[in-house]
Write a structure and sequence with these properties.
155 residues, OB fold (Dihydrolipoamide Acetyltransferase, E2P), extended, 3 helices
Length: 155
């Protein structure tokens, strides 16, 4: 059995670029950076960044091109593929890419508004629950103050 499956979460390094293939299919290319934090032999904390080339085809590519922007966080699920071609100078070139099967768009980073962006998603469950509907944006969730007894949980 073989498996070629990739999940990465990172920030876009550039705006998505849309292209059309001779067959008429559309594709979208963009880059994602992921970070890894570790300690070296001396115990000093270090951070390492990896850059990934992403390709999304057809409808997924159109959606990525429409909604993703540089700096935005995204989760990409897909497979690794390496392609090769002969360059004009006679050298053989290689490019390893992640072919996206699914993309989940994250919050857009917008400088100073990033800190406030998380607050805009807080909603009030009490007001909306009274009406039997989902809480509206901009309302704050109010959680109960009493302790929950684990014996009261039915599972």
């Amino acid at each position: 059995m073989y498996l070629n499956k990739v999940y990465i979460i990172g920030n876009l390094t550039r705006d998505p670029e849309m292209k059309a293939l001779p067959s008429g299919s559309k594709l979208c290319q963009f880059g994602i950076a992921t970070n890894r934090t570790f300690k070296d032999k001396e115990g000093v904390k270090k951070e390492m960044t990896e850059y990934h080339n992403i390709v999304a085809f057809n409808k997924l590519g159109e959606l990525a091109g429409q909604y993703l922007k540089k700096g935005q966080q995204a989760l990409v699920e897909g497979r690794i593929q390496t392609r090769s071609w002969d360059a004009q100078d006679g050298q053989k070139k290689y490019r390893t890419e992640i072919i996206a099967d699914n993309i989940q768009f994250g919050m857009r980073s917008s400088g100073a508004n990033t800190a406030n962006a998380s607050n805009t998603n807080e909603v009030s469950a009490t007001d909306s629950a009274k009406n039997g509907e989902a809480p509206a944006d901009g309302e704050k969730i109010e959680y109960p103050q009493e302790e929950i007894n684990p014996d009261d949980i039915p599972f």
